[in-house]
Write a structure and sequence with these properties.
Layout lengths: L5 E6 L2 E2 L5 E5 L2 E6 L6 E9 L3 E11 L25 H19 L22 E7 L6 H5 L7 E5 L7 E3 L10 H15 L13 E8 L5 E7 L4 H14 L3 E8 L13 E5 L3 E6 L6 E6 L9 H15 L6 E5 L5 H6 L5 E6 L2 H13 L5 E5 L2 H4 L2 H7 L4 E4 L8 H10 L3 E6 L2 H11 L3 E9 L9 E8 L4
Parallel strand pairs: 4-6, 11-12, 16-17, 16-19, 17-18, 19-20
Antiparallel strand pairs: 1-5, 2-3, 3-4, 5-6, 7-8, 7-10, 8-9, 10-11, 12-13, 14-15, 20-22, 21-22
Length: about 475
């Protein structure tokens, strides 16, 4: 058996990491792309290793009852909703399994019963932020090329694992309106004006990216990235958006002539409206709303409806009585800290991004929350004996680190601080399992709650509650 060979009538058994399916052929494990559990398929071998094969599905001979009809015309090209061909209940099943597998295999942990995963009420149009890239020459599928379609400028998403290839998006099902209409209007107007789209290889052209942010309060932000401060092009484009989309409350642009599209280190010019939009979220008590200002550089959970469910889980597992000093590690713009504040004596938020800390302070002010305090710095350096002695040892620690998890020094400092309870919110159960293994020196896991933040993807959020051994 070698690369290029076709495997016939392969029965797909289950799902594995990164959304790949698993089958067995002649005693070898086969990882397949493009299948669903229960399918019987033909597949072409793309890679051969000593103990396994990798293959891609070329024909579905027998359709599984766990399959779903993909709803997007870009399915198979786009790297976004890679599980939309699998029924949502099946997706949730395998996400729950992913959590268990990571905690058991990587962490080697003794686990309580894992609570059923909380699915997302919205499985389409749930995101509040999308980034689109301009390209001087769109990437076309083989079928499009065969049909005689000519390449032209495009505005869309990167092809997975191809930094310089961008396909033109006709319609995206991830973000609510007016996202699709804004993108199409920008492309149409820029083409009519003859404004050059960016060439990622030669680093030439004017229009780079556009970011669209929407909010549950009905506000919308646009951030247009260009390579030069050339207002004879930028001005008319932004004015067109203001005229066609009166619901836009924040119109911004960034001049970026770097070799990458990140703009956290660049100035953002607000052309019209406010330099922020406002998100809203019900308080955990259910009485009243919290409001959060979201600037062009701010992080806010991209599924706002499900973020409320996630934060409610953290709030419930924290078990606050109003007397606790809470540390909120990796606080970002202070959303969790402000969400919990009414039920704590004090919440101290730590975050390495200084701009986010300023947003967190503003969010406390606009919600009239007076028992929070925020500090910026690398958390492995910030959280030390001096910090604990100055601000007090926490009764409860909430931690919500990035995908890489917590630095080992942070885990060791948490062990030294010995809070009574830890609530660990993670977007990567693999690194969470690694950190929990360190914390298991003094802590016992008492609750596990997976939450699906990103339907039709392989990603899963997981919340784990720990208690100091001997504290029960």
């Amino acid at each position: 058996m070698k690369k290029g060979d076709v495997l016939e009538n392969v029965h797909i058994e289950t799902m594995a990491a990164e959304g790949k399916c698993v089958a067995r052929v002649d005693g070898l494990v086969v990882f397949l792309k493009g299948g669903a559990p229960g399918d019987v398929v033909d597949a072409q071998v793309t890679r051969k290793k000593k103990n396994f094969l990798e293959a891609r599905v070329t024909r579905v001979a027998q359709v599984s009852d766990r399959r779903a009809q993909p709803f997007c015309s870009h399915f198979g090209t786009c790297g976004g909703c890679t599980w939309q061909h699998i029924q949502y209940e099946t997706q949730l099943h395998y996400k729950q399994q992913q959590v268990r597998d990571n905690l058991e295999r990587i962490g080697g942990l003794s686990l309580p019963e894992i609570k059923p995963i909380i699915g997302s009420a919205q499985t389409r149009f749930y995101r509040n932020k999308l980034d689109f890239t301009f390209t001087h020459s769109e990437w076309l599928t083989w079928e499009s090329l065969q049909s005689g379609k000519a390449k032209g400028p495009g505005l869309g998403f990167h092809v997975p694992k191809m930094f310089d290839k961008v396909f033109d998006v006709e319609e995206c099902h991830l973000q609510p309106g007016p996202s699709n209409d804004i993108r199409l209007a920008l492309k149409e107007t820029a083409l009519k004006m003859g404004i050059p789209f960016f060439d990622l290889r030669s680093q030439q052209g004017f229009l780079r990216t556009v970011t669209i942010r929407t909010s549950t309060s009905g506000e919308t932000m646009v951030i247009l990235q260009v390579t030069q401060n050339k207002m004879e092009w930028t001005g008319p484009l932004l004015q067109m958006l203001a005229d066609r989309f009166p619901q836009l409350t924040s119109i911004n642009y960034v001049v970026n002539n770097k070799r990458n599209d990140t703009f956290h280190d660049l100035a953002v010019a607000t052309w019209k409206g406010n330099p922020y939009i406002t998100e809203q979220m019900p308080k955990p008590s259910g009485e009243g709303m919290l409001h959060f200002r979201v600037g062009p550089k701010s992080f806010y959970q991209t599924n706002p409806g499900q973020a409320h469910e996630l934060y409610k889980v953290a709030w419930q597992l924290a078990g606050l009585s109003g007397k606790e000093l809470v540390y909120d590690l990796y606080t970002g713009t202070g959303t969790i800290a402000n969400f919990l504040a009414a039920d704590a004596k004090k919440v101290i938020g730590l975050e390495y991004v200084a701009d986010a800390i300023e947003d967190a302070k503003v969010n406390s002010q606009i919600n009239k929350i007076t028992n929070t305090e925020f500090f910026a710095g690398d958390i492995k350096d910030l959280l030390d004996d001096s910090f604990l002695n100055t601000h007090g040892r926490p009764d409860v620690i909430i931690t919500d680190p990035p995908r890489a998890g917590m630095h080992e020094d942070v885990c060791k400092m948490i062990l030294k601080a010995e809070p009574q309870r830890i609530v660990y919110v993670s977007c990567n159960p693999a690194t969470q399992a690694r950190d929990l293994k360190i914390l298991s020196e003094k802590y016992e896991i008492i609750a596990i709650q997976p939450v699906d933040m990103f339907p039709h993807t392989t990603h899963v959020e997981n919340v784990v509650s720990l208690t100091l051994i001997g504290n029960q």
